[in-house]
Design goal:
- By secondary structure, the protein is an all-alpha fold.
- The chain has five helices and no strands.
Amino acid sequence: MKLFDAIASRLPAPRLTKGRVIAAFLVALSCDALQILLGPMGWLAPDEVLDAFAFAIITWLIGFHVLLLPTFAVEFIPVVDMLPTWTGCVAAVVALKNRAARTSSASSPSFSVITPPPPAMPPPPLLPGASPRIADSPPRLPGESPVFQDPPDPNPS
């Protein structure tokens, strides 16, 4: 497995974009279709040339993955190369790379900037002659007199 890791580390892994994935699928589908159309005549040499080009182009488009190697090797087996192996391999590699990207982004901690709340605004000034409300006073124990008391009414009736 260290050999495959060494190969993968030397080949840069491009970012999977929609265009690259579509292009890789088009290459895989066209290679598989041409091999099916060539049929038994492709066993002479064209199939192997197609496979070498498909391997190189798909690796360039979606990056190297270990699954590309057995797919390339299986294509040399006479009857098995009639199966759409490149298309299946591209689908598997894209799915595995997407899953790896999701799990790596979900497992990495995301840091957010915590902003402190704005400072509390002081209460508005009282109008002349107005008394503060009891609700604005600090909490009291039962039986304690309020800190703020209403001023006596100047016009008792």
